[in-house]
UniProtKB/TrEMBL annotation:
InterPro entries: DUF8081 (IPR058394), PDDEXK_dom_halobact (IPR059118). Residues 26-92 form the DUF8081 domain. It comes from the Archaea. This is Protein NO VEIN C-terminal domain-containing protein. Residues 117-253 form the PD-(D/E)XK nuclease-like domain.
Length: 260
């Protein structure tokens, strides 16, 4: 039996992503089990080849595991006698689906894999959990507007209209994750919703390196160009420090263009 037939071995005997040594560049071989389970991985293999290079292991995890809605994708250390120069295999392990009886008492604890939608919802919750003044947007607005944070209030809309509702002349394919209105504090209302509007933001919140759908991009860019008081923001969140901390970047589409 060849090493290819013996590897990657039995399901559930796959090393955790964090146990695969890091490298730069970090080269990943897309194995058949991953390609068969996830159409996105198969499309990637067809367009870019069976071996992909990333800046680091963390970059590869974000793009190949967190950004793909396919439970059971894992990195595995390559076979020692594999002639390919790779740092990890991307494989799909069988997702255990025990019946209710075999799971045992829920009071003792159950474990489930997180899915891409759940991770994305956690990232969005960092903003939607606030009605007013989410710290990252307050800090961003204070820097951009060159104002003291105490001089304005940020009002959060966690369910904004689609782009077509914000501007009927623009294709409404994109539904922002959140909208923020920056208003001057005028001292007349505790909620701060009557002050002069200083800036409006609409934001797409992404975890890791997940990308925009193609049919969203044109509408987002056009919307940003039509209104000087409105900025389209791309927020990328790293949840690896949760629950103590989280890291993020905030970029305006006007400044950096719209990535894929």
């Amino acid at each position: 039996m060849s090493w290819e037939e013996q590897w990657p071995g039995e399901p559930y005997q796959v090393a955790e992503a964090g146990r695969v040594p890091d490298a730069s560049p970090f080269r990943v071989a897309l194995k058949r089990s991953a390609c068969a389970a996830a159409a996105e991985i198969e499309t990637l293999r067809q367009s870019a080849g069976e071996v992909l290079s990333y800046e680091s292991r963390a970059d590869a995890v974000a793009k190949l595991i967190h950004a793909v809605d396919c439970p059971g994708l894992r990195f595995q250390e390559p076979a020692p006698n594999d002639p390919a120069d790779v740092d990890a295999y991307l494989v799909k392990v069988r997702e255990p689906r025990p019946d209710a009886a075999s799971r045992g008492d829920p009071a003792t604890g159950w474990t489930f894999d997180t899915r891409a939608q759940q991770v994305g919802a956690l990232a969005e919750a960092l903003f939607s959990a606030y009605r007013y003044d989410p710290p990252p947007i307050v800090a961003y607005a204070a820097r951009e507007l060159e104002r003291d944070p105490d001089s304005f209030r940020v009002i959060v809309d966690d369910d904004p209209d689609r782009v077509g509702g914000l501007d009927p002349d623009i294709d409404g394919a994109w539904h922002p994750d959140a909208a923020f209105t920056v208003r001057e504090r005028d001292g007349t209302e505790p909620g701060g919703e009557s002050g002069r509007v200083l800036k409006r933001y609409v934001a797409e919140v992404k975890h890791g390196s997940t990308s925009f759908e193609r049919n969203q991009r044109d509408g987002m860019s056009r919307l940003a160009r039509r209104d000087d008081s409105l900025d389209v923001l791309l927020v990328r969140v790293d949840l690896s420090g949760i629950p103590q901390t989280y890291d993020l970047t905030i970029r305006s589409i006007d400044d950096v263009g719209l990535p894929g």
